[in-house]
Amino acid sequence: MELVSVVIPTRYRRELLMRAIESVMQQTYSNIEVWVVVDGDDLDTMAYLRNIGKTRFPVYYVKTNGIGGSAARNLGVEKASGKWIAFLDDDDAFLPDKIACQWEQLRYDLDDFHLCFCPVLTNSLKNPDVFLPMRTLDLNTESLTVAEFLFCKKGRRTLGFIQTSTLFGTRDLFREIPFTEGLLKHQDWDLLLRMAQHGVKFHQLEEPKTRFYRHHAPSVGNTNAWKFSDVWIKRMEISKLARDYFTLSIILRGVAKDVSLTRAEKRSHFKQKIGALTWQKGHYFQFSRLIFVNFARIYL
């Protein structure tokens, strides 16, 4: 079996990191190393790693001066010795056969331009100990681009979901197409869209193999930075349909929640964004629903 390197960026979350590492130790795949990137000063986590003792798989670590999540993941890839990379956020956990299933999915591909992901089990803030599969379409069978899979909606849900802790591919792939460093948010979407643009083939497992934990702790994904999002999405080479869904779901929601804007400014942004939409057959209802939701947030 070829070596798989699991890359875990972390800071100030020792207890969560311990759970994430334990999920790696329980893998059915038998040739693994762990690289923990401690992104900044964190005496508690560093003490834990120095005294971790003997583990089933080796745990290596490196400390930075606080370079951010994307750069920390890229550093982990550079430090890794494995042919294969599996990313794991410190607040998530693998199911026992996660790596084995993904390695089996990709092991026969002759080039590096293949990425495997899987659905997730997730909890709710009201019932944190109850995990259920997050419903998603199958990207392998639907006639969707990766951007449409990520951003287009059916009812209140997006058609698909690709979480960083589900990603698996060769080290060479993540070195050739690394995470973009310095982004305020959307690091995972940025990586996925650039991979799609470069012709990477996406493979989706049928069953969930990762636990995606929801909690109240602050995260990059929860930061309201709609102005950044507006600039970022314009740089992405995606369909107009995906871009319009992103505007309705992400940007206008950010406008509505921006306490620095006056009501008149919010209404101005709303009118401008709605006026730029391209109404496409089969999406009238979803567009109308999202427009109404944002109208209520901004006008009522």
UniProtKB/TrEMBL annotation:
Residues 5-108 form the Glycosyltransferase 2-like domain. It comes from the Bacteria. Transmembrane segments: none annotated. Keywords: Transferase. The keyword Transferase applies. GO terms for molecular function: transferase activity. This is Glycosyltransferase family 2 protein. It comes from Listeria booriae.
